[in-house]
Amino acid sequence: MRLTTILLVVATAFVAAQSDLDPDSHARLPYLQRKDMDEKNVEVFDKLPGLGKDGVLKGPLAFAAYNPAVAKALFDLHNAAVAGTLTPHTRELAIMVACRETNYNLEWNGHQATALKNGVDAKVLDVVRKRGALNGVDEKDAVVIRFGRQMLTDKKVDSATYAKVVELYGKKGAMDIVAIMVTYADSGFYGIAVNEQPAPGKPAL
Fold first, then answer.
1. Which whole-number Å values give the CA distances from 25 to 91, 104, 105, 182, in the listed order?
2. Given its phi and psi angles, is residue 119 left (phi above 0), alpha (psi -120 to 50 degrees) or beta?
3. Would 9 be classed as within a structural domain?
C-alpha cells in the first residue's frame, strides 16, 4: 500500500472520529446552559465551578452536570479531598498522575503550572506524561506515580507499592492520595466518554 494511500486512510478515520464533536465544547456533548435548567436544578447549577457570566457551564464538571446532583457530589468530593493531609506538592503530583492515566487534557493543562509552582520538577512531570521509567525520581514522588499507575491503569496495586505509600505518607495519607486521584479521574472518565479534545492551541496527552 502506498504511503499516500495510508495517509488518506488515517486522515479519513481521524475526520470520522471527530465528526460527532460539538464545535464549542470539542466533545460529543454540548455545554449546558443555565436557561436549560429547571427550577429544581438551577440552584445546584449556579454553585458549580466553571459557570460563566453567559450562563454556560464549562470546566471539569461540564458533562457530569447533565445530572446536576452528581456534579455537586463530585464537587463536594473534590473539596473534601483537597482538604486532606497532603502537601500541595504531593497533591498536585497526584492530580497530574490521575490526569495522565485517564488522558485528561483539560486538567493536565490547567494544573501543570500549579504543579511546577508547588515544587514538582519539570523532569518528573515529563516522566509522568511519557509514562517513563522511575529511575532517578525521588522516592516520595516515584511511589505516588507508581501507585497511580497501578491503581488506574493496571487495576491492581501490589503489596510492595502499598506498603511504601503507607510508610512514606501514613495510612490516612495513602487514602488521601486515592481520594485526590479518584476525584480527578472521575472527570477524566467523563472526558473519555464524550471524547473531549483539548482547546485550540493546547497540547494533547
1. 28, 14, 13, 23
2. left
3. no
Query: Distance between CA 80 and CA 174 in Å, rounded?
Result: 15
Angle at 37 (CA atoms; ends 34, 42), nearest 5 degrees: 80
In angstroms, rounded to a whole number, what is the distance separating the alpha carbons of residues 85 and 12? 49
How many domains does the chain fold into? 2
128 & 157 share domain: yes
- Give per-residue pLDDT as tens, 103-123: 999 999 999 999 999 999 999
CA distance 1 to 18: 25
> Which of the listed residues 36, 62, 83 is the one where a domain comes to its end?
83
Q: 141-162 burial string, b = 16+ CB within 10 Å, else e?
A: bbbbbbbbbbbbeeeebeeebe
Instruction: Give the single-character DSSP code of 22.
Output: -
For residues 98 and 184, membership in a common domain is answered with: yes
Tens-place pLDDT, residues 63-101 = 999 999 999 999 999 999 999 999 999 999 999 999 999
Backbone φ, ψ for residue 57 (5° rounding): -95, 120
Task: Note whether 91 and 188 are same-domain residues.
Answer: yes
**Domain enclosing residue 152, as ranges:** 86-193
Same domain, 90 and 186: yes
> Three cell numbers at 59?
470546566
The whole-model pTM stands at 0.88
Whether 21 has a pLDDT exceeding 90, the answer reads yes
